[in-house]
Write a structure and sequence with these properties.
By secondary structure, this protein is mostly beta strands. It has strands at residues 3-7, 10-12, 18-25, 34-39, 46-51, 57-59, 67-72, 77-82, 91-97, 107-111. The chain has a six-stranded mixed sheet, with no helix packed on it. The model has no long low-confidence stretch (mean pLDDT 97).
Length: 113
C-alpha cells in the first residue's frame, strides 16, 4: 500500500528558508512523477512544483525562482526547498504521486514575523 509522509514544515520569518521532505513507501518510487501542492486557508489546493520520474521539473509562477523540487530515488524521497519565503506562502503543503489519488497528510508552513 502506497504511503507518503511529509516533514519539515514550521514557522519561519519572511525571507527565510525551509526544506520539506516526503518519504514514500509501498511503491517503486523511481517510476513515479511526484508533485507538491499547497492549500492556504479559504483557498483551493494548488500545484506548486512537479518532478518527473526522469527529473524534469515545472513550477507555478508564484514560486518559480524561489522553490526547488528534487528527488533522491535511493531514499524514496522527494524534497521541496523553499527560499525567500513570503507570508503568502503560508499553507499546508501536500506531497502527491502525480496523477494518482495518493496524498500525504500535509505539513504546515507558516511565514510570519
Amino acid at each position: 500500500q502506497a504511503q507518503l509522509v511529509e516533514s519539515g514544515g514550521g514557522l519561519v520569518q519572511p525571507g527565510g528558508s525551509l526544506r520539506l521532505s516526503c518519504a514514500a513507501s509501498g511503491i517503486i518510487f523511481r517510476l513515479y512523477a511526484m508533485d507538491w501542492h499547497r492549500q492556504a486557508p479559504g483557498k483551493q489546493r494548488e500545484l506548486v512544483a512537479y518532478i518527473s520520474s526522469s527529473g524534469n521539473t515545472n513550477y507555478s509562477d508564484s514560486v518559480k525562482g524561489r522553490f526547488t523540487i528534487s528527488r533522491d530515488n535511493a531514499k524514496n524521497t522527494v524534497y521541496l526547498q523553499m527560499n525567500s519565503l513570503k507570508p503568502d506562502d503560508t499553507a499546508v503543503y501536500y506531497c502527491h504521486i502525480a496523477g494518482s489519488g495518493i496524498w500525504g497528510q500535509g505539513t504546515q508552513v507558516f511565514v510570519s514575523s
